Amino acid sequence: MKDKLKNLKAVALAALIMLGLGLQHSKAHAAGTEGLTVAGGCFWCVEADFEKVPGVKEVVSGYTGGTVKNPTYKQVVRGGTGHYEAVQIMYDPAKVSARELYDLFFRSVDPTDAGGQFCDRGDSYRTAIFVSDPAQKAAAEAAKANAAKALDQKIVTPILDTSPFYTAEDYHQDYYKGEKLILTRFGPKSQASAYKRYRDACGRDERVRDLWGNAAPFVN
Known about the structure:
Layout: H1 2-31, E1 34-40, H2 43-50, E2 56-64, H3 73-78, E3 84-91, H4 98-106, E4 116-117, E5 120-121, E6 127-131, H5 134-151, E7 159-161, E8 165-167, E9 181-184, E10 187-190, H6 191-202, H7 204-212
Helix pairs in contact: 4-5
């Protein structure tokens, strides 16, 4: 009986040790990922851009900055909810910093335009940075000041406190590389093809190139 009790205690102790190691591993993994939220017009485009950045693990399209809980895409683009089309960027801070991501963000949009972005007009397409702590705020403010100096123009992109982020509908996620066929004015196209035609027609890359020149990180 004593031997069985000793064995049970040993098994229990081993289980506790393994549980502790597992918790430590989970904490270490979580510590290796940070997130930030930006709004840069059409979230398809921002998602497509930032998923190319080394050190970025995932980009999720969604809505933030508004007053309606769990808004739909139709509600947001119709207006009145106060939401921005935005993305959450999850990244490894050992490979890329928040400041670097904010610098890339400013150079991927037109931060001098207060009425929307490119062909997309209205409140939901405005630019903004949403910060969750003093370190993010300092990094965002430094990047904004750097953008203003580089352009020698007023930057209208606000730096706002974070607010609830609602993930957009499934069909918006990774839209730029989707293979589902959809009907467009150009006929049936895959999502990826339709996205490319939309981006070209909207003039996003053309305007960013005109504004930022060789400093534009995502244009061809």
